[in-house]
Fold this sequence. Notes:
The protein has 14 helices and 33 strands. The chain is an alpha+beta fold and 537 residues long. It has an eight-stranded antiparallel β-sheet. Strands 2-3-1-4-5-11-6 form a seven-stranded mixed β-sheet, with helices on both faces. It has a six-stranded antiparallel β-sheet with strand order 18-17-23-14-15-22, with helices on one face. The structure holds guanosine-5',3'-tetraphosphate. Residues 17, 19-25, 47, 88, 139-140, 142-143, 254-257 line the site of guanosine-5',3'-tetraphosphate.
Amino acid sequence: MSIAKEIEKRKTFAIISHPDAGKTTLTEKLLLFSGAIHIAGAVKSNKIKKSAASDFMEIEKQRGISVATSVLSFDYRGYKINLLDTPGHKDFAEDTYRTLTAVDSVILVIDAVKGVEEQTEKLMRVCRMRNTPVIVFINKMDREGRPPVELLDEVEEKLDIRVRPLSWPLGMGSSFKGVYNLYRNSFAFFRPSKQTIEDDVRVFDGLDDPALAETFGSDAAALREEIDLINGVYDPFSVETYLGGTVAPVFFGSALNNFGVQELLNTFVEIAPGPRARPTTKGDVEPQHERFSGFVFKIHANLDPKHRDRIAFLRVCSGRFERNTFYHHVRLDRDIKFANPASFMAATKSLLEEAYPGDVIGLYDSGTFAIGDTLTEGEAFMYKGIPRFSPEVFRELRNLDPFKTKQLEKGIAQLTDEGLAQLFTQRTSNRKVIGVVGELQFDVLKYRLLNEFGANSDFVPISAHKAVWVRFTDPKDAEELFSIRGNFLYYDKNGNLVYLAESEYALRMVQQKNPNVRFLLSVEHNDQTVEMEGTVS
Ligand code: G4P
């Protein structure tokens, strides 16, 4: 099959949600649907258990298993679908942000009872930065939730995206009857069951079809009225606005009951984008570009001492990847070949002979990869758009064993390459501050520094609110910053200047006093000069 045909077949996406909204359940139902798995519970068992939320080793065990489900590939209606898993635990949110750079679209799951929750807002901001097309699935319609119109308003308001319902629910909770598909004029009847996978659907001849009243009795008029209202309020659905990332089509359903999942999947394969051109330091590269290229968006290290392997996940962006072929590691300016590239499918890992744009490959790594690295077939460009955000928690690094300084430095370099943490070194001294997304990561760092590098370290809390990258063209513009806040200026790993703001107030003051300096809450992972289009606060 030609490369163009392979590209056409691929749809690479992620499901995102606030924990507990139903991401795992929906993932499992999609897989059951496509025939990729046959037993309910296969995905679920990989989920990080809530009881383990404070024990990182337990979480790591769970994460170890979930590596096998990092990429779930399945075939559906002639398409090859790659579903990239994202960790639900908020301390690993950075992993999720990066995974979002490797997908072509997203399905966002919202709990009908809880509405838009905090973590969803953050994840959506990352999608909005890249104009990633989004389909919204409002889940748990079998429970007494919030009125659908209210939910849609909340999505628009909090997630800064316009919505367009493509289905409309009749009833909710105990009176939930099903959903009317506005696109196909069909009604899918809700039959609470975890077993059936085909929806019970009846097609109508539009909203004026007398069969509607025969079927729904007095509910028919209310349904007609609501749908008329919806069609009046929202612009007609256009695939272009969805693909441009400005309008999100919305479906209602219940993942647990397998309801609305078929409709979601059918629409997804119909409208979701395949691999598209991606920006690099040498301009956009089309997936059809005949030479292979791709980038590393996630590195997973196994903490089990018996299996201490590390896997770099690479998204193929152009050409064809082949096993045992030399490819160019652009940052290291070195050619490397891979004897055992892996593909993943629900708990099984298999040797991969070739891969195409949209696919994700697992490469065994002995420390040669960092997040954002690009592999090419000899060309010297790097993929852009892999973000690095300000950490949330900061601590000063203390070396508890002066004889192991080298080991500590090596360990920190390695672990920051993996994206586990960020390192900031004070401009005027050797003080080192480590920033992470969640407290849990300090436990992981300490453990790994000791067990993998023999370095005994400690992390001392400091008061820092955010790390902001500082950009200016004329040094005069930053005079105030250097003279008054000099002690708060650091360099990140790539030598970029960073201001560690003590508080939100201090950050605001500094911004006011240095109006010609730019303070960025996110930058590119591997590029020292290019900044992201927007910033995430
Ligand atoms: P997550 O991955 O987004 O964190 O959510 P997950 O799928 O694990 O679902 C969270 C909880 O919500 C689970 O219940 C799940 O069964 C339930 N759930 C998912 N979809 C629906 C739905 O459509 N309707 C209803 N009523 N519940 C739904 P749990 O009690 O936490 O776990 P479990 O004991 O059922 O495994």
